[in-house]
Task: inverse folding
């Protein structure tokens, strides 16, 4: 599975794995949405630590999950974005909508 | 100007070929010993261009995507991604950030990614005939490590 989902209390953590492109996005989206629907979390964390590549399909996935969390009154956090992933992500302006935590990548140049 | 090296890759527009396309381009560029950031920029831009052929140009069918990677003197890389698909009516509008004609979860940021990750982007298209995306990038002249 390209995504590993864990629910602890009201926190749903979706850990992405491998590469997130148009090909991979469909299955990941379904898996996350199914779990959101059944678990009804108040906080959704998408963790990018084990993701090695992302293009604009990943932005679509994140923006879509942002809408979904808004609908159920939950918060969305984005965690552990590598420099490559952050560079793509910032073009979306998602920083104004969701908390981004660069985690261990904090000290690298994320221009 | 003539390239000092070049490769042509033709692939069918199956979505599983998106990762192949960017890895193939990256491994050809590797001979220039680019930085990790340069490799990632190029992989991301190629992924956008190829995905657009698959998602938009050949929406209703599987057809061929034509990629040419050329290396010029002075560490300039030029990548052309061409399709014979539906074409784009208004290229200027299509290139505006957030513009998308696809439903689902497309962000409309593919061209914005190509533009910001490469030095130059040009898009030529003819409705009903197809689209050619040309991107160039100047790789840095960093000091090489020994070996
Ligand atoms: N090769 C192509 N053939 C036909 N139409 C294209 C092609 N490439 C892009 N387009 C058109 O240009 C629009 C913008 O493309 P762009 O890549 O910026 O965004 P997107 O593909 O819609 O979304 P995203 O790339 O963020 O997932 C597309 O929605 C499509 O209408
Ligand atoms: Mg696109």
Result:
């Amino acid at each position: 599975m390209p995504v590993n989902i864990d629910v602890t209390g009201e926190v749903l953590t979706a850990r992405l794995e491998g590469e997130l492109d148009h090909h991979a996005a469909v299955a990941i989206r379904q898996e996350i949405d199914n779990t959101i629907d059944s678990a009804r979390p108040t906080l959704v964390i998408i963790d990018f630590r084990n993701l090695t590549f992302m293009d604009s399909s990943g932005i679509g996935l994140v923006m879509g999950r942002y809408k979904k969390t808004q609908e159920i009154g939950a918060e969305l956090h984005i965690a552990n974005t590598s420099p490559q992933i952050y560079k793509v992500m910032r073009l979306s302006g998602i920083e104004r909508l969701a908390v981004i935590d660069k985690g261990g990548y904090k000290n690298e140049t994320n221009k | 100007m003539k390239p000092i090296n070049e490769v042509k890759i033709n692939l069918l527009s199956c979505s599983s070929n998106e990762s192949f396309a960017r890895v193939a381009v990256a491994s050809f560029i590797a001979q220039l010993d680019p930085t990790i950031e340069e490799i990632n920029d190029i992989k991301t831009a190629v992924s956008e261009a190829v995905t657009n052929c698959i998602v938009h140009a050949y929406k209703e069918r599987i057809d061929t995507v034509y990629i040419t990677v050329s290396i010029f003197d002075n560490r300039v890389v030029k990548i052309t991604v061409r399709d014979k698909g539906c074409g784009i009516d208004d290229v200027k509008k299509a290139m505006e950030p957030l513009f998308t004609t696809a439903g689902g979860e497309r962000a409309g940021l593919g061209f914005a990614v190509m533009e910001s990750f490469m030095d130059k982007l040009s898009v030529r298209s003819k409705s009903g005939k197809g689209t050619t995306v040309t991107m160039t990038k100047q790789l840095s002249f960093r000091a090489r490590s020994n070996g």
